[in-house]
Protein: Acetylxylan esterase 2
Organism: Fusarium oxysporum
Amino acid sequence: MDIRSDREYRVLMLQLPLRIGTGSRQTHQHITFYPTNISAMISFMLVLSFLMVLVSANSTTDAITCAKGAHLVVARGSLEPEGPGAMGILAEEIIKLIPGSDMEALVYPALYNEYVESQTEGVRTMNSVINNYVKNCPDTDLILMGYSQGAHVTMDTMCGASSEGFPGTLSQPSYITDNVAAIIAMGDPSLTKGQPFLVGTSEGSGIFPRNLPIGCNSIASKTVSICDKGDPYCEAGGKDLSVHLSYIKNYGEFTVGHVVKAWKSRN
């Protein structure tokens, strides 16, 4: 075929994205094809079919692996680097005591100045994470843990968001809450006075109290929210930041013991 004179000639170009690697190590590359005649086009289609099989096979590596013990979802506090944050120390201890367990650090901004936007994104992400996990692993218990903004994310995800200035959301349905063994919130800005799961010396509400604390009723028996007097975030008016930063040290052993006991009572 003379490609310079054939008016029917068309150049077919395709950029096929390929994911190389798995998980967070994936990179994306594009392969571009320019078939210039019928024979080349047939060869191109065969190659394309083969590459699509490779892409499909690669995507299966993203499938969730269900933990035989518990699956921990940990949300870090404001400005902590990506990962589980300070809570990770406790999560690792829990994993040691519940064989077959694993941990997932929630991926969200954890910003301070853009708090509402950051926290709202965290709620959306955690909602997706836990619903997807329960759908794929209905026989594995979840343990949810959050510090500071991460605690706010965790509690809004489960109770529904109802604090002033934050987009409202619904509480989780029973098929989700039934799969949760324990919830730990430390320094939660949405803590509301009178909620039955408070552990600590605080006597007030956080800086973002709930207008509808009833949304937490379905998880109250599974929840521990730790807040001490003077914490400027979980107790509005508090002025001692060191209190807010002390919970891992002061309540770490209690937290690990409580979570392990809660899991064992169900398994």
